Amino acid sequence: MTDFGPLWDVVFLVVAALLPALIYLAWVRSGERSSAGPWSPLLGAFFLGALGATFAAALIEGALLAGGTAFSQAYPAPEFTFLNGTSKLGALFLVLVLAPVVEEGLKAWGTTSYKDQMRTVADGPVFGAGVGLGFGFFETFLYGFGAYLTGGLAAGLVLIFVRSLSSVLLHGSSTALFGFGYARKRFGAPGSPEASHFAGAVGLHASFNALASLPVLFVLAGLGNAYAGALSLLGLGLAILLAFSAIEYVRSLVLRGSYAGAGPINARYRPPRAATSPTARGR
Fold first, then answer.
1. CA–CA separation, 95 vs 98, rounded Å?
2. What's the number of CA atoms in the CB half-sphere (13 Å) around residue 87?
3. Pairwise CA distance, residues 21 & 18, whole Å
4. Which residue from 140, 163, 173 is spatially nearest to 28, judged by alpha carbons?
């Protein structure tokens, strides 16, 4: 705790988690070269992700995990072990399958809630990033607050710093990827790009979680845990690299949507008519 008391400690934790997420959001939004939309609906999307999707995900995942654990204990067959949340295999099922599907589904719902605010394809990944970064901010604050309760302010701030370089970016990038596909479909792209981009968001999320779970994967593969510390550092480094690569790609999608020409990528765009001289018009 600080000399100011526990209330100020919590304020420090909130600010430490909030500022990086808002900076990332401003950076993604700056990719809208033509005309960035107003901040008010974007901040609404941010806090919908923070206070709506986060709590809903916790409730749904908690209920599914409890139900799966109870089922696997009532019917203790090997093929149901992955449903037991108290086992290593169950923990992996949670982070590699359950959490990516549930969380990306809820963040996608949050993104589509702002469909009427999307004026161009570029708005899709921007609003997706808003919802995802809001989710990442509040989740990171909760993890940091848990570390604060057990290890003090320094422990909470360190965890928030690490997650701000990794998990926060991941949540923003994965939902922005869905938002790009959703906006393409909304503005006339053929096929079902939102479905393929949602699958990409889930895959990105699961890949990130797999990197963060390298030690557990090695144990389940029978390779032992002698290198657990080194594997944890390697997994964290690769996860951070993936998160930064993903957010760079997201910003390229915003630029691509901003400069999209006529056609299915942005059905509302109309190229300017060629100027004609009075002589030419009179012919």
1. 6
2. 17
3. 5
4. 173
Residue-level pLDDT at 2: 56
Measured at the alpha carbon of residue 115, what is the angle toward residues 110 and 118, in degrees to the nearest 5? 120
Would you call 19 helix, strand, or coil by DSSP?
helix
Q: Is 46 in contact with 172 (CB distance < 8 Å)? A: no
- The residue whose two tokens read 């056609």 is 263
Q: Any idea how long the chain is? A: 283
pLDDT digits (tens, 9 = 90+) for 178-193: 999 999 998 887 777 8
Q: Say what the alpha-carbon torsion angle 270, 272, 274, 276 is, to the nearest 10 degrees.
A: 120
Report how far residue 167's alpha carbon sits from residue 246's, in angstroms, rounded to the nearest whole number.
11
Mean pLDDT of 110-137: 95
pLDDT the model gives residue 261: 38
The pTM for the full model equals 0.86
How many angstroms separate the Cα of 27 from the Cα of each of 36, 129, 184, 208, 250?
A: 12, 10, 21, 22, 11
Checking if the pLDDT of 222 tops 70, the result is no
User: For the segment 150-181, what is each residue's pLDDT rounded down to a tens digit?
Assistant: 999 999 999 999 999 999 999 999 999 999 99
Please state at what angle helix 153-164 crosses helix 6-29, rounded to 10 degrees. Answer: 10
46 closest CA partner among 118, 106, 129: 129
What's the helix, strand, coil split of the chain in %, to 5?
75, 0, 25
- Considering only 24-38, 108-122, 141-155, which range has the smallest mean pLDDT? 24-38
What is the per-residue burial (b if ≥16 Cβ within 10 Å, else e) of 223-248? eeeeeeeebeeebbebbbebbeebbe
In this structure, which amino acid lies at residue 125? P
For residue 216 the two structure tokens come to 């557990």
Question: Looking at residue 274, what is its pLDDT?
Answer: 41
